[in-house]
Write a structure and sequence with these properties.
mainly beta; OB fold (Dihydrolipoamide Acetyltransferase, E2P); Ribosomal protein L2, domain 3; 2 domains; seven-stranded antiparallel beta sheet; four-stranded antiparallel beta sheet; 2 helices
Amino acid sequence: MAVRKFKPTTPGQRHKIIGTFEEITARVPEKSLVYGKRTSGGRNNTGKMTARYLGGGHRKMIRIIDFKRNKDGVPAIVKTIEYDPNRSARIALLHYADGEKRYIIAPNGLQVGVTLMSGTEATPEIGNALPLQNIPVGTVIHNIELRPGQGAAFVRSAGNFAQLTSREGRYCVIKLPSGEVRQILSTCKATIGSVGNSDHGLESSGKAGRARWQGRRPHNRGVVMNPVDHPMGGGEGRQSGGHPRSRTGLYAKGLKTRSPKKASSKYIIERRKK
């Protein structure tokens, strides 16, 4: 996985840096695992705009991703590595021995033709999904469940990985990409390896039109509005706008929004780094 930079032959090419797509092996998705994505354009059922800066964009198909990996003990062969417009990571199409097909998030280093497994008897190799209690301490993992059988909730975007650091009774201690260290039940599943497409963070769109293709319309700042429209608006000339806050008045920088009474706080050993 790499990125390519373009010669500045046009203003849009000057700052454009995109992936090479060299790992992609199929252009058309598996028909049985896709359906059309409906977009609202930020409008509600009466046509009134309720979310700003949305609309337009290329038509997309939703690829149904298997985050649960619950076909335990059934081997599957990786048939293709594909692009998914709905996420930063690549996806892999698995053909199971019983004939079923499923998509998974493609880990870094996964090759077409490799056999994958899930369940307690699977080996801790790249792409295999195991309960945390069967994974060796120190292993790099992704697609981590928060509750057994719920499906992967953590560490799913391109280039991310967590690490299994230790075990404490019924719980495993996981260090997440944010720096947070927390306990997760040992019966929860995780996938071995890090998420693929690790160069995604190096990409640069190069022009505003690329955002429009993704369904994002121009976003105007609060400081350029009038006081009636935004708490940071108004002032003679170019005023700074005061304390950064949202349109509804909620502080935007430094205000803690996590509930102090949240039940899962007792599982967090160390909070994420600021």
